[in-house]
Amino acid sequence: MRRVAAFFDLDKTIIAKSSALAFSRPFFDEGLLNRRAVLKSSYAQFLMMLTAADHDQMERMRDHLTQMCEGWNVEQVKSIVREALHDVVNPLVFAEASELIAGHHARGHDVVIVSASGEEMVAPIAEMLGADYAVASKMKVEDGKYAGEVEFYCYGENKVVAMEALAAEHGYDLSQCFAYSDSITDVPMLAAVGHPTAVNPDRGLRKESSERGWPVVSFSNPAPLRDRIPTPSRNSVLATAGLGMITAGVGFATYLALHRKKS
Question: Which CATH number fits domain 5-226: 3.40.50.1000, 3.40.50.300, 3.40.630.30, 3.40.50.720?
């Protein structure tokens, strides 16, 4: 049998906010961004959240972020992301998305994050989520710093290119695979698999999904991953307590036996 993968977009599909915007505060605190850049980026992301992001908007956002990051030290960026990851991203993860990822893993499927955000942010987030692979945009690096150019923009049709490369490498049958996204710009990604689903779709994707008969679901419950540890059932609590009592009893009996021998 061919292997199956579930491909997930990241922003507004798995997390409730743009990943680039989520890290703007840590970047500001470490001196990579000034106040004007933070406000400009926040405003641009806010507009994208309110309206469906079309091709021109995505291209403008790519150019803006590329120019803004030019000259940044790559290792410093990775360090900031690593240190801020759990405080910044963890509370934004949709509980429904986390459960869906766990469900795919339980069925033996690989989970792949496919995002237009930079790989320095996407890869650690994917690892935190327990995803098997991550594909993201890659910027050109010269002498350890961003050169102001994009080597691979993981957006639109390029997401399909990345998915097909992974399918060839790992033996996925895309006709049996799953894909999840919120944006009209990810129609190629959704159309590339046999089981597409629109998650929190923008207006364009909602219309497209209706015309194509794609399922539509809503994720609305961001919750930290650490808060999702199941509460032990009453039976398991009683069993644990019973085991503790048995262990204590055995220990006490052993103590008495040793004490008698010494006497």
Answer: 3.40.50.1000
